[in-house]
Amino acid sequence: MSGHDHHHDHDNHFTPIEARVRALESLMVAKGYVDPAALDAIVETYETKIGPRNGARVVAKAWSDPDYAQRLKADGTAAVAELGYGGRGGEHIVACFNTPEEHNLIVCTLCSCYPWPVLGLPPVWYKSPPYRSRAVLDPRGVLADFGVTLPEGQRIRVWDSTAETRFIVVPLRPAGTQGWSEEALAAIVSRDAMIGTALPSAEARR
Amino acid sequence: MNGGQDLGGQMGFGPVRPEEDEPIFHGDWEKRVLALNIAAGAMGHWTIDESRHARESLPPADYLSFSYYRIWLEGLSNLLVAHGFATPAELEAGAPATPPLQPRRVLKGADVPAVLRRGFPYERPAQAPARFAVGDGVRTVVMHPPHHTRLPRYARGKRGTIERVSGCHVFPDTGAQGQPETAQWLYTVVFTGPELWGRDADATSSVSIEAWESYLEPG
C-alpha cells in the first residue's frame, strides 16, 4: 500500500459514467423535469422499503394459512395486496407454486422484468446475458450454476416474463419446519428461492 | 426487433455467476439512474415499452457488454433527445442551453410513495370476447418486426397450449412506437422443451410466455 493521500477523491474524480449521470441529473433538475426530492424518495423506497423480505412474508403466510395460499393461487395481485404490497413493477402478480412434480423458474429473456413489490430490484445476474439466454434453453444447467439439483423425476417449468405480469415462486415448505411461526418461516425464504434458483431448507435458520 | 436484448437460447455467455451478498446498488450513480428513469417516465411522454425499445436499440455489442444501469442511462438519454427534452450537448454539459419543454407531469417527492404503490396497471376493459380458451392449441406467428415486440425469437412459429387467459392488456408493439394505446387479450402459452429446442431437448422441461392475441393463431 502506498501512503498516498485519498482525501481529495470527491470533487473532480468521477468516473466517466458518474460524471455523465451527474450531468444528466443536473440538467433534468435545471429544466424542471424532475423534482430532486422525488429522486431521493425513489431511491429510499428501494433501499429500505421494498425488497425480498416482502415476498418472504407472502410465502411464509401461504405456507401457514391454506386459505391464504388458495387466494394467492387464485389472484396473486389481490393476495399480496392483503399484506400491503403491490404497485410499480408488479401491477399484475402471479404466484407459481412448486409441487413435488414440478419446479418453477422465473426469467425475463427480453429485459429485466421482475416482481419489484415483493422481491425488490433484481440482482445483476438476473439481468445479465448468461441467465437470460440459458434459463429457457437449459434450465437444469442454470440451476447447477446455483448448486441446485432437483429431485429425480421433478419437471421444470420456466416462466418467461414477456408481459407486465410478474411471477413469484412459492417454494415447497421444507421438512423440519412444523410448528414454526410465520416469522421464522419467512427467515428461511431467500430471494433466489422465490426466483426458483434456490430451495429453502430448515437448516438456513440461524 | 431482433436486437441484442432477445437473448433466449443464445449461447456462449458462460455460467451464471451470482454475487455473494450483492448490494442493492453498485455505486451511487446506479441509484440516480434508477430514480431518473422512473421520474422521467412519470412525465408521461413515453410508455414503458418505448423505454424498452430505446434500450434494445443500442448496438448489440454495447447492449451485451454494458451493465444494466448503463443500458438504462443510454436509453433515457436517447429518449430525452428523441422527444426534444434535451440536446446531446446539454446532456454533455449538464446545463440547459435551450428552453425546457413543458412536461405533462412532474413527479413530486411527496407523491412518490402513493405513485409507486399504485403503479401503472396495464389491464383494460375487453372490447371483444377472447379468441382462445384454456386448453386450446395455438401456434405463435413468425414475424421479424423492425420495431419493439414481446414475442421472443425462440418462441416464434411454435405450437403451444393456452394455460391462462389474463384479460386485455396494453399492446406493447404499437405503444412502443408512440401510437395510441390499444389493448389485446393476453394469454399464458406453454411450450414443451422439445417443441422449442428440438428432439434432443429436455422433455421434462417446459417454457411459457405471455402472448398477446395477435401473436397467436389456432394451431
Helices and strands, with pairings:
The complex is a heterodimer of chains A (206) and B (219).
Chain A: H1 16-30, H2 36-49, H3 52-64, H4 66-74, H5 76-82, E1 92-97, E2 102-107, H6 116-119, H7 124-127, H8 129-134, H9 139-145, E3 155-160, E4 165-170, H10 182-186, H11 191-195
Parallel strand pairs in A: 1-4, 2-3
Helix pairs in contact in A: 3-4, 4-5
Chain B: H1 28-41, H2 48-56, H3 60-65, H4 68-82, H5 88-93, H6 112-118, E1 123-124, E2 137-140, E3 159-170, H7 172-175, E4 183-192, H8 193-197, E5 205-212, E6 216-218
Give the gist of this structure:
The complex is a heterodimer of chains A (206) and B (219). Chain A is of the alpha/beta class and 206 residues long.
N-C termini distance of chain B: 24 Å
CATH class of the largest domain in chain A: Alpha Beta
Largest sheet of chain A, described in full?
2 strands, parallel
Q: What sort of overall outline of chain B do the alpha carbons produce when their principal axes are compared?
A: globular
Counting DSSP E segments of at least 2 residues, the number of strands of chain A comes to 4
The outline of chain A comes out as: globular
Oligomer: heterodimer
What is the succession of H and E elements of chain B? HHHHHHEEEHEHEE
Which structural class best describes the helix and strand composition of chain A? alpha/beta
User: What integer is the average pLDDT of chain B?
Assistant: 97
Which consecutive residue ranges of chain A, at least 5 long each, have pLDDT under 50? 1-9
* CATH fold topology of the largest domain in chain B: SH3 type barrels
Our estimate of the beta-strand percent of chain A is 5-15%
Round the Cα radius of gyration of chain B to an integer and report it.
20 Å
Q: Tally the helices of chain B.
A: 8
CATH superfamily of the largest domain in chain A: Nitrile hydratase alpha /Thiocyanate hydrolase gamma
Spatial arrangement of strands, main beta sheet of chain A: 1-4
Q: Biggest interface, which chains?
A: A-B, 80 and 98 residues
